[in-house]
């Protein structure tokens, strides 16, 4: 259920800012977003898995914090990332 090494490396290659980038907000959000999508599919089959649901809530919160940071730092990169990942714009012009 976790992301395998090849998938993680593929996401890093796609969303990195420079050659040795592994921890930029874009890479972190892409990894978290992939994990969120996997868990969402998991819950379609396993509706009563409440322990994993708690983990999903933690991932969503972490993703929101990273996106909020990116929005405050560079809103252009924020909008580019949410368009690439297909995430709806939850911050809008608020930026809180």
The backbone outline, from C-alpha atoms, is globular
Major sheet: none
Q: How much strand?
A: under 5%
Kindly report how far apart the N and C termini lie: 33 Å
Radius of gyration: 14 Å
Summarize the structure.
With 96 residues, the protein is mainly alpha-helical.
What does this entry look like structurally?
The chain is built from 4 helices and no strands. The protein has helices spanning 5-15, 25-45, 50-73, 75-85. α2 (25-45) runs antiparallel to α3. The chain is globular.
SSE inventory with pairings:
Elements: H1 5-15, H2 25-45, H3 50-73, H4 75-85
Helix pairs in contact: 1-2, 2-3, 3-4
Record keyword descriptors for this entry.
96 residues; 70% helix
